[in-house]
Amino acid sequence: NAGVTQTPKFRVLKTGQSMTLLCAQDMNHEYMYWYRQDPGMGLRLIHYSVGEGTTAKGEVPDGYNVSRLKKQNFLLGLESAAPSQTSVYFCASSDSPHHTFGSGTRLTVV
Amino acid sequence: SQELEQSPQSLIVQEGKNLTINCTSSKTLYGLYWYKQKYGEGLIFLMMLQKGGEEKSHEKITAKLDEKKQQSSLHITASQPSHAGIYLCGADLAGGTSYGKLTFGQGTILTVHP
Predict the structure, then answer these.
(1) How many CB pairs under 8 A join A and B?
(2) pLDDT digits over B70-102, tens only?
């Protein structure tokens, strides 16, 4: 029972590089979310999706893009990484009031 | 200021002591969720509260929802080192239009000394 799987777990990027964070869920959930966690700020919603082929902006969407081509996958892209995007990124899915979270991706942009 | 404020931000207790973490909203709460996070890991769902006055317990952890104050409290009885971690409250502040989106507090870092 995998739940929500995020890859990679760690990554170091140079300023200006691009990358994609992968999130996969095997629970057939409709809703999926990308959050970032920064010290003293809790989790902030970046983008979310309410179903296959749909995406919407959250609280802090700038500098990120997402895609949900398949129901089980939700991809988060950084086109040109900036040091301000150094953070821990969490993916979550939901089909009931509460979220199921992945174990996170720790991203450092130097 | 944050829509969801947790207090305290950090807490250090001796094993066996009781403790309380509070989560206060500046908006109407349509649902309140407590999660626990260990360093380097994801968030684990603890409890969900949806009705004013509701109280739920799991092992030695009890959570209550005070609708009038728009506040929830998480109480741990006889703390153990296994309770250490970061506790986060998440809330549905939009009701039926939220698509399950949650707003989170800053988190409370709990350390339990043996």
Answers:
(1) 62
(2) 999 999 999 999 999 999 999 988 876 667 889
